[in-house]
Fold each of these.
Amino acid sequence: MKEEIVAPTVFLVDDDPGVLKAHARLLGAHGFKTAGFESAEAFLAQHAAAARGCLVLDVSLPGLDGLALQRRLAQAGCSLPIVFLTGAADIPMSVQAMKAGAIDFLTKPVTGATLVAAVRAGLEQDALARQATDEGAMLRQRYASLSVREREVLAGLAAGKLNKQIAAALGITEATVKFHRARLMDRMQAQTVAELMHLAARLDGLR
Amino acid sequence: MWLFMISLALVSPTALAEATRNVLVLYSYGRLLPGNLEGDRGLRDGFAARPDLPVSISVEYFDNLRFSGEAYERTFVAYLRDKYALHPPEVLMVAADEALDFVLRHRSELFPQVPIVHMSILDEYLQSRPPLPADVIGTPIEYDFVGTVAQALRWHPTARRLVVVTGASPWDRGWEARVRALAGDLPPGLTVEFMAGLPTDELQRRLRALDPGSIVFTPGYHRDGSGREFTPREAARLVAAAAPAPVYGPFSSFVGTGIVGGRMADYAAIGRGGAQTAIALLDGADPATVTRPKAMPMALQLDWRQLQRWGIADRAVPAGAIVRFREPSLWEAHRELVIAGIAVILVQAGLIGALLFERRRRRRTVADLARSEQLIRLAAQAANLSTWVLDARSLGPAGIAHVTQPAGSPRGPLADFSETLARISPLDRATVDTALRDALQTTTEFDVEYRIQDANGEWAWQSARGRADRAQSPRLLGVAIDITPRKRAEAQAAEDRAALYHMTRVSLLGQLSASIAHQLNQPLASILANAEAAQKMLEREPLDLVELRAICADIAAEDQRAAQVIRRLGVLFKRGESVFEPLDVNELARDTLEFTRSILTTRHVAFSTQLAPALPLIQGDRVQLQQLLLNLMVNAADAMADLPEDRRHMSIATALQDRDVRICVTDRGPGVSAEVVDKVFEPFWSTRPGGMGMGLAVCRSIVEAHRGRLTVAEAPGGGAVFCALLPVRASP
């Protein structure tokens, strides 16, 4: 519901109010919607978990610092892409941030072009991720509507077994397998067996 | 033990009765004074009259005419007390005023309870002082000046002039005053002339010029107008030899020196009388009831040869007069007189010997003095010291900038300090001038350092120390020493110290380079972003002028911020001379925290401050103290590196403690263990791998340069607390 209303936002977290304001202005001038926070704690308290957009995060913050916030968000299942900013480049720190999935690790002062490019990349990733998440949710919904027998038949098909083999394994007739297959293809909205196989593979990845 | 003492006490009265009795005689003047010799003889005769009473007579000479002063008295008291501690006198006999006064002054420490017999004390003197204690007794004497003169006038009825000769010592002055007081009692028509305190040569010249119609009276003198010392008897002899007129005197010891004589108490009789009184006391008589004559008997004592010389007939001599030195026919009849004469000659010989001895001693003293002066000069040379004297009058009213040359050049090895003063650097003149004036006023020692230009125009450092000369005010005496090498070494040490501070400071800043880069990058980032935002906004119509203006203002403010960081850095990087100025420790702490804020943030060290309000200012070097705080804060952060992030906390506290401002940096690290607490401030001691170990050594050096103290202690609740105590600035 919210997804429809809330436009993608660039969330900025920096303990330096001057820098925070300037970056918000720069991104604002490039047409981005921004929201600034002076500490990681303030961000956690105010932002909506499902909010769309990306996070421009200063590494060095009093209290909860940038890397700790990254961990905290990951634990909470929030996939907001993160662009890190640092006042002084620190290689071990940047390696850690990138390993944990950061979009980029930029050293201040950062040019507008670099920052805007990184933010765009972050928003794109977010959009893709959300799309993927939306498809996954639909698949899960369809899968949930299957009966137990239909799921067993789908598992057999996904494992590459023949109808005869599935019937033998489940102790039912081949005709009954065919009947279930037709119903589950209908329920999963698959036009062909090949499409059904693809959907099954994605479901497997989502699980 | 007690039993033994009690038995001794019981036995002692009888034991004492058989034992020799101790008597101590103290004479006011010297041993060889004729009066003392005669008196001593009479005293011994007096005791000899009681062969059943064995008496041990000890004799001491206070010798007050030549020796006096507090130190001497103290020493003399100690000497008497110690000497007679084991054989204390049972009777103390004193001759003349000075000895009596001395004994009474120190009676509490010197033979208290021992009865005192006084001798040869003028009745008028006893009347003039507070009454004597009951156990101080004796027969006073009188000098019958008026009676003597009256007798002389009977023999020389034509005399119209009486010449009184006295000397210059206090004793002599006493006599002069006494005679002046009595001059009114003399017959009218007699002119009294005083020859008082003249040099002996002058006196003799004037005496020779006297007309024979004069009469001379002299008590002799101890010192003449030129300061030469005499015995009164010697003086009397000189007076009698010079005067072409008859000479009279008050003392029996003068008879035989060439004077006619006079009405006088006999010293031997005084001695005998004293002995009798002492014997009565030794026999156990109560001092208050001892019978004794009211006054010493007086007799006319005369020299027969002088009677002949001045044509005084035997029949004119009153009955009862004692005539001595009668011609040979009388010698055999008066054997004791002959012996007395020989004794007098012996005494004289002794006197001469003593004088010769005295002279030799004086010569030796002079030689010793010269030697000691030479030694002092050698020592001064070896120590590169110069001794100097400064006439206070050469200090002009406007200070030493206007030194005038003193009237006379000083004698001996002393240099004239005013020559030095003229060459002192104008920078140090006021200091030296103040020191000299204070020393003159307070007579305390002064010690001052100054720069001085030598003959070649080279500047050197000197230190002078001295004090006012009490003997010859107003002037100053002192020594000066070249301290240029020391000053150079001090300057070198200060330079080395500054270099060390700088080196460690730069090394510290190196450790903080990430933090410094961060501090610089923040405003730069802000400026760049603002500028690019403005560029982007300028591409679009309509222009948001309000926002563009705000952006420009922010750019300017951020630029200022960057400049401030660079300024702060520049000060710390600069290697300059130490500059002490009034500082607010709280402001210093805040400024330093501003600097370390980013490093504390990146290291996840939270901090808090407890700054005491309204702290007094201290006198300090801003850069050095900032280095100190920076170092302590970085150390605190380092100490907590292994702690979980939420436990890393540092606190900065300031407070007033007595006369010091205290600033403490507390961490929650492992603390400083007791084994190493003494080592942490030592150079090259470090817990950090790769640490130079100079940080805390430099910190302590900085604090000590501020006359403060740097301490470390266990913080309450674990961790270390480093405190610097900095003395409050003396009132401006």
Amino acid sequence: MDVKTAFLNGELQEGIYMEIPEGVREDTEPGFACQLVKAIYGLRQSPRAWYQKIHTFFIGHQFLRSTQDYSLYINHERKVILLVYVDDLVLGAAHLEDIRWIKAALSKAFEMTDLNVLKVFLGLEITRDRSQRQLTIHQQR
Amino acid sequence: MNDARPIATPLDLDTKLLAGTKTDGEDNQIKSVPIEAYQSAVGSLMYVMLGTRPDIAYAIGLVNQFNHSPRWNHWLAVKRIFRYLGATRDWGLRYGTSNVSGGYSDADWGAGEDRKSVGGFVFLLKGGAISWTSKKQNSIALSTTEAEYMAMTQATKEIGWLRVLLDELGAFAHIEQLSQLHGDNQGALAVARNPEYHARMKHIDIQHHQQKRSLLLIRRRCVLTQATHLLRPMRPVRPDLRCNAPPHPTLPDATWQRSLRPEATWRPPYVWTTPDSFSHRFFLLMRR
């Protein structure tokens, strides 16, 4: 799955101000600025703010972050494993209902794009042959 | 390079790749290699290798050594890897074809210009590779046994990491199998199995103590874990108390019973197996 405009979800820890963008309000007095309520793209702290946000979400849903790989989250109770790469998510579970559960929870919290069965992740193409119980990872480019 | 002539191997083993000054053939004199293009080509290859192509790891390790001053013959070697990839474009990692799992390590002994050996390993799970490395060793090995033994040390460290990861994933069924390391050097296997006394391996002890990067230390740590594996393995304490996840599963009874048996029984011939409590203790020791 893919999170739409992921960085806009981040919460800012500190007060940040920006110049009023052109064409927003012509009648503002000079010397005024906008205070940012949430993170926007291009800020130094946006990636971190986003990661904090999604991390809190996973922890709240009984996931444990792997000590070996901070982009790996595991829910032992439901047997759901997921990988995060910025706004790309890969979900895996033993039962389809658990996939549906986490998908529903994610879609409720963030605006998501469901890309269905995993085909590409980080430039790696993944094909599955369920009848043979085989999985292939390749990069044909 | 899309329609380059296909070739069956990524590397020509007959001609050695040497640094610039020693191989000034005619082509090397006339044709210059743009350094940015060379480095970016090697970088692209590296990306492919890290993703799905352990088979070109060794070849990339070689051409990588000339990043600072590439010559024409190095460029040809890089192009050869591309030709190989073109010929094997649809190759990938396939899991589930067989039940083969475990680690395999090997080393070329002093094949490089500086006589340092290149050691490597690959870990297979269900017939597919899940982790691989090819790396020039830090010190010069005086024998194939030494070179392979150092490669096995690297692989052992990887086992430590893999075990913790599999443990976290709850894939307990695979832990035992993946902890089996296979080597093809009888000497190295013998030393791994019985580190007590080998007159011709003494210098490894001395050399590596001196470097404070002691293989022997690592090996002693293994021995230590063998001797103390009657203790229950230490589990990392979960720091997050907000989670309702079940407590971390402990070792099933059968495994626990097995670890009580004398050492000799758990060691299959020619396979260096690590005891059950290995990963955690090893992990903790390595962190110091």
